[in-house]
Amino acid sequence: MKKSLKIAIPVLVVVSLAVLAFPLSNNLAKRQIEEPLGGVSEFKPVSVIMQNKCVDCHTKGKTIYPFYTNFPIAKKLIDEDVQLASDNMPFTREKLLGLQEFSRLDLSKIHTVVESGEMPPAQYKILHWDASLSDSDRKAFISWIEAETKSRKGQR
């Protein structure tokens, strides 16, 4: 009996940790996507990408929290990440719907992090398996930024 407990307890601990480590709940949550109402035509697919892959951190009130959010360490880390992201690059509902322009500085920042692969960050992608930007996602961002920049030529 003791021998089976010596095996069962470590196995149970490992399985429990594996379940917590795998972000199954992150992949089950469904988000309602809002149709963009404005902006250049190239923005529509980018808005959908942002709503699917960026708003958890960059849009206050749109975060879908995983079941482990209220665990002491997880809550602190998630809250800090959301606060930092939404402070540095807020994607407001108006921006996501194309009703408010992203500033030139915002466009430049987005271009840089999309091209470099900095966004989404690795620690987020580990827990959100579908968050990585595909090559077509990156191309959509670049096309949008180029079209947006071109549409603003001559404006100050």
Q: Low-confidence spans: pLDDT under 50, at least 5 residues?
A: none
Mean pLDDT: 84
Structural class: mainly alpha
Share of helix among residues?
55-70%
What string gives the helices and strands in order?
A: HHHHHHHHH
Shape: elongated
- Please state the CA-atom Rg, rounded to the nearest Å: 20 Å
Query: Which oligomeric state applies?
Result: single chain
The profile of the biggest β sheet is: none
Distance between the termini: 79 Å
Count of helical stretches? 9
Write the layout of secondary structure elements.
Layout: H1 2-21, H2 24-28, H3 43-53, H4 55-58, H5 72-88, H6 93-96, H7 104-116, H8 122-127, H9 135-152
Describe this structure in words.
The chain is mainly α and 156 residues long. The chain has one domain (41-152). 63% of the residues lie in helices and 0% in strands. It has nine helices and no strands. It has helices at residues 2-21, 24-28, 43-53, 55-58, 72-88, 93-96, 104-116, 122-127, 135-152. Helix 3 (43-53) packs across helix 9 and helix 7 runs antiparallel to helix 9. The model has no long low-confidence stretch (mean pLDDT 84).
